[in-house]
Write the structure tokens for this entry.
Amino acid sequence: MQKKVRDTKKVILKVALKLFSERGYDGVGIRDISKEIGIRESALYKHYSGKQDIFDSILKDIEHRYQEEFSTILPENMTNIFSEENDVREELFRISITMFNFYLKTEYGSQLRRMLTLEQYRTSEAGKFFRELIIDKGLYYILGVFTSLINDGVYIDADPMVMALQFYSPLYLLLSKYDNQPEKYEEAISFLERHITIFNKIYLKD
């Protein structure tokens, strides 16, 4: 019985995230969510006190889901990520494509990014999550990568934060440009590869 309750709560959050990402918070009502799921409104209220409670629960779930998606792909420790066996360009592409695909291709990631983009100015909490998740986490991860590469003598001695901004900003721009255009995915990846190639021409030591 407990499993059924947990599953219903998860379904509500999943459907609500989808609708919030499409219409925004103000464009969705409890009736819309319960209708999409196929349950009565009264049944939804057994799990959540209202729409704001559902929205807040999505935000609480974000950090856990994000860590779950990235923990095995983007290790916190940079040691041995870049070595003689691991080409810098290939590793940067792997890291970039991981972030890129999460926000562009996975259902959860793309819906999450759209919802937070829409809601960042409605509530301070959503704005905080937008900055931390969509901007800061990726930026500071890349900062750590470039700091390690400079310290190891792979990249020239430069400001790693400026490098991170120069590298990460086009990724965010490409996400915005190719959002909701799955038929242009290969074009987006081509731009991503060209960006990394040119970036390395500037910063890689001879």
Notes: Residues 1-58 form a domain with the Arc Repressor Mutant, subunit A fold (CATH 1.10.10.60). The chain has a mean pLDDT of 86.
